[in-house]
From TrEMBL, chain C:
<feature type="compositionally biased region" description="Low complexity">
    <location>
        <begin position="1"/>
        <end position="22"/>
    </location>
</feature>
<keyword id="KW-0813">Transport</keyword>
<dbReference type="InterPro" id="IPR000515">
    <property type="entry name" value="MetI-like"/>
</dbReference>
<keyword id="KW-1003">Cell membrane</keyword>
<feature type="transmembrane region" description="Helical">
    <location>
        <begin position="207"/>
        <end position="232"/>
    </location>
</feature>
<feature type="transmembrane region" description="Helical">
    <location>
        <begin position="133"/>
        <end position="157"/>
    </location>
</feature>
<dbReference type="InterPro" id="IPR050901">
    <property type="entry name" value="BP-dep_ABC_trans_perm"/>
</dbReference>
<comment type="similarity">
    <text>Belongs to the binding-protein-dependent transport system permease family.</text>
</comment>
<keyword id="KW-0472">Membrane</keyword>
<feature type="transmembrane region" description="Helical">
    <location>
        <begin position="32"/>
        <end position="54"/>
    </location>
</feature>
<dbReference type="GO" id="GO:0005886">
    <property type="term" value="C:plasma membrane"/>
</dbReference>
<dbReference type="InterPro" id="IPR035906">
    <property type="entry name" value="MetI-like_sf"/>
</dbReference>
<protein>
    <submittedName>
        <fullName>Mannitol ABC transporter permease</fullName>
    </submittedName>
</protein>
<feature type="transmembrane region" description="Helical">
    <location>
        <begin position="163"/>
        <end position="186"/>
    </location>
</feature>
<keyword id="KW-0812">Transmembrane</keyword>
<keyword id="KW-1133">Transmembrane helix</keyword>
<feature type="region of interest" description="Disordered">
    <location>
        <begin position="1"/>
        <end position="25"/>
    </location>
</feature>
Length: 319, 525, 300
């Protein structure tokens, strides 16, 4: 009895083990296609970051090759330097202003584009164009072609308007980059990112279920009521998605800050700060500490952002 | 504390011995320069005074050509291995002057490619245009240029040399970087190259530059063009307002003149002064004004002096002058912007580098012949002009050092000066580095408006004693320590953004800057 | 992310009629006014590009926008200068580097992302959401944070100023986006198709190639487009990690058009526009793909 029983349990456990092994094998078969991408990403993105953490605790300055050893001084300097905190603030300000304004513009323009009118495809194409200009090329043109006080388009418009009233006046000069450097960067970025928001939001608008809108129209709902009670709730996900993606890119913006307002302490953001710490100061320890701090800051923000995406995700999981 | 070494070496080498004028060095014996400085400077001044007189005789260097061919072939035999690593192996001198200073083919470097990083100044753009026909065709060496705006170029060069990544063979550095980099062994020693390359004629180079590019007796750079600073003004505009400027005006007189000529023509401002952030942009003219007002960034014991009254007076003076009578959006303006402004009649005066004159007097310049040149304005000192030379240096990690020297030997030669003169424009010659150029009748005829003033300015610039008090290290428009790059960029950035373009006060800026300066000074105490 | 997908109608292209909107019926003064407003806004957004192109065809002396010279004679001078007419600096090595970096990195991204997306969408591995978020989170890591180690690693491995190093970095940069996009596209393919394929005894590779690839083609196109654009545009990394025409791409070359003497706006405009042309063509040619791509595949 006991022997048989034992045998049976042995068999069953053997079967179970077999099933287990099969399941495990099956799991691995499923995982294999994922592994190259996963390993590649881990190696290329995580290892440098680990090295960053290591260097951030080292005394390492290219100007002083003989310096070495462990230190906490890099982090101390990050948090005690007023300009670094200011740079964090600029980074946050850039992201918030550019994302929010582009979202509002984008929603407005998407609503306008969602109507049927003459030349709709042409206007839509025009609206996409700014996003398709290489950022550094756009930044250079904004700097020298538009914002430049002597030869720029803004000054040109001012001159033109001024000439209506004073035909003999010398050319006007508009000094936007000097007076409001951060605003200048924001204007250029909003110009480039509004099309991005518009495209995503327009797609969202066009996916509104038509029958409900018709019903609303039959019920005599006003445009505002439809917008407030039907469109906006439907658009929430799209707004979140567009905002999240825009934020990811703008938090890392370097091209515009660097080309439009070089060495200006009132627009400097974290990527540019790190670039300067590496290049001008040659202080690799400090630059790494700055990198670690910005990553921690982004992770905090990203957690909130990811929670948003998560909610979108759960709906799919439930499918 | 730990980093005293390099600056003191610099102080020793930096005594301004320009041309044959040695008087300026006498005062530096009492100043910040260490005792060794007088010894080395006096010996170098002797050799320079004797050799420069011989170099005065000819613009070409026909006398040297015979011996050059011999030494060039000897050199190439000695280093047939090809990978000459600076001082240890005998370098070739292929770039020498066969006859009139022509570059020649050298079997060891023929067909090689060198990478050159340089700033996008007009003189360098000319060089880029002339390279194919005048250098590559004759030597077989292909030159790849990377040309960048000054700030980007400095970033790139510092990253490159500090890491010895070996991507560039030659870069435009200056008498600011070279003494610092030499202390860390980041550059190839050019002493032997220059010595064996008879056609190059090192003695013809202004001794002040040879000295400031020499560290511990080793030569690390060759100037492409040298400059001081002076005041340029529209003769017609100032005359129309009845203003005449002395040969060395005071800053107060210049400020008065700027007020009077402001608006002399529609859209014309009084004066252009750099305000674009950067230690080499805004920082350069500002520091010369600070010097002549009796201020300094640090005293000889490395105590920061930013909040001292003369310093603040100087900054207030500069900022107010620009704000009241200066160019439009000064925080965006540096050398190129001011050059354009003066050429297009948007300003009447301009205080900047002497090398600007070449562009102003070029045959296609709209203001050619209309510009007057006087010395840098002063207040408490006798002269206030800066001293600067964009100079070629070879990266230590370069694998093509022989070819790189051939390139330098050509670019800094008097033969190249002739090529610019004959093929482009005599006014555009990269000047201010060779004595012989100033006895070349073609050049002096083309540059008669500004060459004398340039020479005087170069002569009077003394990097060891630029102000009214002893200094901890050399430098007129800069302080020769590695930290000055980042520090200078930052504080000129806040000054430009908050005071020049905004409504911030100089006092607030000075208080903030003082603490940063003191933190740096403390590391040297 | 499929909530939008689930409700998305296939009417998202510009040319297709939009879902019926109550406002479509409205005509008259208000409607005309709104249409004019839309046109004006479109023109404002286009204006910088219009002036960029206009200036690029003007001789340097008249290439000023204060005030704009609408009727200045047209010339190709700016473009000739951009291609190195007088400087002797050929732009072609930079063009080749740009093409190599963006095309090869895009191909690598596809090769890695498609199998990964398969494993995440069709027969999802356990904890596949965690994997997805891991991918997305790497996009949150600012490139600046890794700048020092990347430089040091490049130097140590001989990758400094080498195009292959840039390609690897661009692949890593775009891979998370591509995985997200491809997963969302593959998730839309009916699972039955995959099952049928595996019943046939077709192997995994065959399944991918024969069945999935054709259906997923639009998604692959959208993914490639986005990866191409982001690689083509990238400046920060290339600025620090490359130094000469051996590996520098066009964005790193552009700033060298700013010269310190006299006039360069015509040349700069020409360069800025010329560099953007491939992206403009790709973007306009695939407008609706662009939306899919930008939204990581969430919007179709």
């Amino acid at each position: 009895m006991t022997a048989v029983q034992e045998k049976q349990t042995a068999v069953s456990s053997g079967v179970a083990a077999d099933v287990n092994r099969k399941a495990k094998k099956e799991k691995w078969v499923r995982r294999i296609p994922l592994l190259p991408a996963l390993i590649f990403t881990i190696v290329v993105t995580q290892i440098p970051f680990l090295v960053t953490i290591w260097i951030s605790f080292r005394k390492w300055n290219a100007n002083r090759p003989r310096l070495s050893g462990w230190t906490l001084n890099n982090f101390e300097r990050v948090f005690t330097t007023k300009s670094t905190l200011l740079d964090l603030w600029h980074t946050a300000q850039l992201v918030l202003v550019v994302v929010l304004v582009s979202l509002v513009f984008g929603l407005g323009i998407a609503l306008l584009l969602n109507r049927r009118f003459w030349g709709r495809a042409a206007v839509r194409t025009m609206m996409i164009a700014p996003f398709l200009i290489v950022p550094v090329a756009a930044a250079l043109f904004w700097r020298y072609g538009i914002f430049d006080a002597q030869q720029g388009l803004l000054s040109g418009i001012a001159t033109m308007v001024n000439h209506w009233f004073h035909p003999d006046a010398p050319a006007s000069t508009v000094t936007l980059v000097s007076k409001h450097p951060l605003l200048a960067v924001e204007i250029a970025l909003i110009w480039q990112w509004t099309p991005f928001m518009t495209l995503i939001l327009l797609a969202g608008l066009q996916s509104r279920p038509g029958d409900i809108l018709e019903a609303a129209a039959v019920d005599g709902a006003t445009g505002w009521q439809v917008f407030r009670n039907l469109t906006l709730p439907h658009m929430r996900q799209y707004l979140e998605l567009a905002g999240l993606l825009g934020g990811i890119y703008i938090i890392q913006n370097f091209d515009y800050v660097y080309q439009l307002t070089k060495d200006n302490p009132n627009t400097e953001n974290i990527p540019y700060l790190i670039y300067k710490t590496v290049n001008a100061a040659g202080d690799y320890g400090l630059a790494s500490a700055q990198g670690v701090v910005i990553v921690i800051a982004t992770i905090v923000i990203a957690t909130f952002a990811l929670r948003t995406v998560s909610s979108l995700f759960r709906e799919e999981n439930a499918r | 504390m730990r980093w005293k070494k390099a600056p003191h070496v610099v102080a020793a080498a930096g005594c301004a011995v320009l041309l044959t004028v040695t008087a300026a060095c006498g005062s530096s014996d009492n100043s910040g320069g260490s005792s060794s400085s007088s010894a080395s400077s006096s010996s170098s001044s002797e050799s320079s005074s004797s050799s420069s007189s011989s170099a005065d005789t000819g613009s070409g260097s026909a006398t040297a050509s015979g011996s050059d061919t011999a030494s060039s072939s000897a050199g190439s035999v000695a280093s047939s291995g090809g990978s000459g690593s600076g001082s240890s192996s005998a370098p070739t001198s292929g770039g020498g002057t066969g006859g009139g200073g022509e570059p020649t083919r050298n079997p060891n470097t023929d067909g090689k490619t060198i990478n050159v990083l340089m700033v996008n100044n007009p003189q360098m753009i000319d060089l880029q245009k002339l390279t194919e026909a005048n250098f590559t065709a004759k030597t077989g060496i292909k030159v790849n240029y990377t040309v960048l705006p000054e700030g980007d170029m400095r970033d790139k060069a510092s990253l490159e040399f500090k890491n010895q990544s070996g991507q560039y063979d030659v870069a435009t550095l200056s008498n600011f970087e070279i003494p610092i980099y030499a202390g860390n062994d980041w550059m190839a020693d050019l002493t032997e190259y220059a010595k064996n390359d008879a056609g190059f004629n090192q003695a013809d180079i202004f001794p002040a530059f040879t000295n400031s590019l020499t560290v511990d007796g080793k030569l690390y750079g060759e100037p492409f063009y040298g400059e001081s600073s002076f005041l340029m003004y529209r003769k017609d505009v100032l005359q129309s307002k009845g203003i005449t400027l002395k040969d060395t005006p005071t800053w107060d007189e210049v400020a008065d003149a700027a007020a009077k000529v402001d608006g002399a023509q529609p859209g014309m401002k009084g004066i252009c002064l750099r305000g674009k952030p950067g230690w080499g942009d805004f920082g350069a003219p500002l520091t010369t004004v600070i010097n002549t007002f009796g201020g300094t960034w640090w005293d000889k014991d490395w105590n920061a002096q930013v909040t001292a009254q003369p310093f603040k007076d100087a900054v207030n003076f500069y900022v107010n002058l620009v704000k009241q009578h200066g160019e439009v959006s000064p925080d965006q303006a540096s050398f190129p912007e001011c050059l354009n402004a003066l050429q297009q009649g948007k300003v009447a005066m301009w205080y900047d580098a002497t090398s600007a004159a070449g562009s102003l007097e070029a045959s296609d310049s709209p203001v050619k012949g209309k510009i007057g040149y006087v010395q840098a304005p002063v207040k408490e000192t006798k002269a206030s002009g800066w001293l600067y030379a964009w100079s070629w240096a070879i990266e230590k990690a370069s694998k093509n050092q022989d070819a790189a020297w051939q390139f330098i030997s050509w670019a800094s030669s008097s033969a190249y000066e002739n090529e610019v003169g004959t093929q482009l424009d005599w006014a555009r010659v990269p000047a201010g580095k060779r004595t012989s150029l100033y006895s070349n009748p073609k050049y002096t005829a083309a540059a008669e408006a500004f060459a004398p003033a340039t020479l005087t300015a170069l002569k009077n610039a003394d990097p060891t004693n630029p102000g009214t008090q002893p200094r901890p290290t050399v430098g007129i428009q800069f302080v020769d320590i590695p930290e000055f790059t980042d520090f200078g960029n930052k504080v000129t950035g806040t000054l430009a953004a908050n005071v020049l373009a905004g409504n911030g006060s100089v006092d607030d800026w000075a208080n903030d800057t003082q603490s940063q300066a003191q933190a740096i000074g403390d590391t040297y105490k | 992310m499929s909530a939008p997908v689930a409700t998305a109608s296939p009417t998202t292209t510009a040319h297709a009629a939009p879902a019926a909107s109550p406002r479509d019926g409205r005509r008259g003064a208000g409607g005309v006014l709104l249409s004019v407003l839309t046109w004006v806004i479109g023109l404002i957004f286009l204006a910088p590009i219009f002036f960029m192109v206009l200036t690029s065809f003007h001789p340097e002396v008249q290439a000023t926008l204060n005030t704009p010279q609408y009727f200045a004679p047209l010339t190709l001078h700016g473009y000739r200068e951009f291609f190195g007419a007088s400087s002797g600096q050929s732009v072609w090595p930079f063009v080749i580097n740009s093409v190599l970096a963006s095309v090869i990195s895009t191909l690598l991204v596809l090769a890695l992302a498609i199998p990964a997306a398969y494993a995440l969408a069709v027969k999802p591995v356990s904890k596949w959401t965690d994997v997805m978020f891991f991918f997305l989170s790497t996009k949150f890591l600012p490139a600046a944070a890794g700048l020092v180690p990347l430089f040091l690693i490049a130097k140590a491995t001989g990758g400094l100023n080498q195009i292959w190093f840039i390609i690897i970095l661009y692949t890593a940069m775009n891979l998370p986006i591509a995985v997200w996009m491809m997963r969302s596209f593959l998730a839309d393919i009916p699972p039955a198709l995959f099952e049928a394929a595996s019943l046939d005894g077709a192997g995994l590779i065959k399944t991918l190639l024969r069945v999935i690839a054709p259906i997923a083609m639009p998604g692959i196109a959208a993914t490639s487009l986005i990866c191409f654009i982001f690689s083509w545009n990238e400046l920060f990394l290339v600025n620090v990690l490359t130094s000469t025409e051996n590996a520098q791409t066009l964005p790193a070359f552009l700033p060298s058009l700013v010269t310190s003497q006299a006039l360069f706006l015509g040349k700069l405009s020409a360069g800025a526009f010329a560099v953007s042309i491939p992206v403009l063509i790709a973007g306009f040619a695939a407008q609706d793909k662009l939306v899919q791509g930008l939204s990581l595949g969430a919007v179709k």
